[in-house]
Amino acid sequence: MPAGKSGPRGFVRDLRLRWACEEAGLGYEVRSVPLKDRGPEHFARQPFGQVPFLEDGDITMFESGACLLHLARKSEALMPRDAVGEAETLQWTIAALNSIEMVTVPWWFIGLSADADNPLEGWVLKRLAHLDAVLARREWLAAGRFTVADLLMADVLRVPKVRAAGDFPSIRAYVDRTCARPAFKRAYDGQMAHFAAHDEPA
Amino acid sequence: MPAGKSGPRGFVRDLRLRWACEEAGLGYEVRSVPLKDRGPEHFARQPFGQVPFLEDGDITMFESGACLLHLARKSEALMPRDAVGEAETLQWTIAALNSIEMVTVPWWFIGLSADADNPLEGWVLKRLAHLDAVLARREWLAAGRFTVADLLMADVLRVPKVRAAGDFPSIRAYVDRTCARPAFKRAYDGQMAHFAAHDEPA
């Protein structure tokens, strides 16, 4: 699974895939793709010019969320095998992508340059408040246990600017306990070590 | 699958589920949820207070994208059964949710109130340009055939403001041919008829 050559270390999305493989005990290898000079070969694998993408036998996939659901089919450590547990895991995985990240990422992006009011501020706070209410009543999002939905949701929520948005104690505790998992630490350390090993002169 | 009581007729997301059921020949029934006075019972089923959600035997799901992937597992009309075709369908379904809609929906939302420059304009146009390049070279997104990924992507792209963004002839032709499918027309007509039958005095 090629990672980005530069970018925000510790937050590039290959971390999600590393983390899933670590939770599931799946072997993996990470290669780099230069951020500069991405050519037709890169766009052929990732039509939006991003990372990561995943190679697994005959299968090549982009979209970290899709890669996570693909990996989750391989291991009960990531997703229960019963139909109801699988459906709950699927719905919360999609919620992380399309109800939370769909608001937090554009909000974060606008915040990079806007010095005035962020037009997405109210929406972000409302979505996080709904999620905080859910997490006040349960330890994990789906099926009463840790699943790939928690892995993804925690990765969406651990972004420093998102963590600092509003006062959501249940979200804070949830991110802390999810990122305290040894598999997260191995994935995080792995990404940082990868960047360090592949540093190039500027 | 309960739909919203009001909202933008013809674009409420239960249409995605109606369309999938129509493509797959799955029987379904749609019920309404009042938009006003959504109480704890509604939030228990849909933590963000939205629609649609799906009831299927023991399974209750929210997130239209998750519901679509759930329905796609039931019918080869929505997703091929081979591993590579399934992976391609999954990646493009997630791309519709997290690479396209993650930009188009906040951009549309900001455009509702902002009279100045939309800070997401450049990002939207870039994402659509990448997608237009993909669609210039193929009829359907995944597996060389219509899949649930096309259903979702076309629904994301057919929003009038998105259709009017930039000049992307391959996207325009793609949305036209996807929405020309009889199953889309039945789903659309069904949603409009549902609203008409459930009109209440303002």
UniProtKB/TrEMBL annotation, chains A, B:
Superkingdom classification of source: Bacteria
Q: Name one Pfam family in it.
A: GST_C
Q: Extract the SUPFAM superfamilies matched here.
A: GST C-terminal domain-like (SSF47616), Thioredoxin-like (SSF52833)
**Which InterPro entries does the record cross-reference, listed alphabetically?**
Glutathione-S-Trfase_C_sf, Glutathione_S-Trfase, Glutathione_S-Trfase_N, GST_C, Thioredoxin-like_sf
Domain GST N-terminal, by residue range, is: 1-79
Family assignment? Belongs to the GST superfamily.
Stated name of the protein: Glutathione S-transferase family protein
**Organism name:** Luteimonas soli
What is the taxonomic lineage of the source species?
Bacteria, Pseudomonadati, Pseudomonadota, Gammaproteobacteria, Lysobacterales
